Amino acid sequence: MTSIYRPLPYSSLDSDTGYHRPSQRLPERVCRESAALEVMTDLTQVAAMTIGPCATLEAVEERMIASNVRLLLVTDQHNSILGIITSTDLKGERPMQYLKEVGGKRKDIFVRDIMTPRERIEVLYLEDVNTARVGDIVETLKRVGRQHALVVDRDADGRQSVRGIFSTKQIGKQLGVAIETTEIAKTFAELEAALA
Q1: Can you say how many angstroms the Cα of residue 172 is from the centroid of all Cα atoms in its chain?
Q2: Quick one: which of 44, 34, 17 has its CA closest to 171?
Q3: Rounded Cα distance, 93 and 76, in Å
Q4: Taking a C-beta distance cutoff of 8 angstroms, is the pair 137, 150 a contact?
Q5: Domains of the chain, CATH where assigned
Q6: How far is it, in rounded angstroms, from Cα 168 to Cα 30?
Q7: Secondary structure of residue 134 in the 3-state scheme
Q8: Inter-CA distances, 100 with 58, 77, 103, 193, Å
Q9: Distance in angstroms (rounded) separating the CA atoms of residues 73 and 75
Q10: Maximum distance among all alpha carbons in the chain?
Q11: What is the pLDDT of residues 33-78, one digit of tens each?
């Protein structure tokens, strides 16, 4: 039996047409005893915000403001993660330290010059997060002195894949309290810059 197919009608795109974006609906309020997943930005439900390593710091700031985020994944043309860059990186010692070492002006600094490279990123495992509470995540972020934490799992091919992001800003908003962490210098260069 032969099937008969019919063409669908076309129409013009309206001038004010947008597009669907994935959106995650996190609970408005949580407590420290709530499941940690209730405060994790799940990258299977929300598109990750990324930027290339050759972007300027101005481009990073614009992307962060437009996306209302404070962390961008730095990716190559194959969407492999090269590192991360945060608003703290932009406003902290890294740009000044880079200019001190290399010279130039702020507009000459690229993401690759001040990002945290992949090999220095510490991550949490989804299997641990699945049984954690919000309070556990807050204590983890405080202990390591970070405002963000990446959560990883394994993809269908067994490769590590970033599944989610914890942010003190998001957690604080859902808890209804500000969460203060102190960034901890991780290298001797960062320690020297902080002490100088």
Answers
A1: 16
A2: 34
A3: 25
A4: no
A5: 36-183 (3.10.580.10)
A6: 13
A7: helix
A8: 19, 30, 6, 10
A9: 6
A10: 82
A11: 999 999 999 999 999 999 999 999 999 999 999 999 999 999 999 9
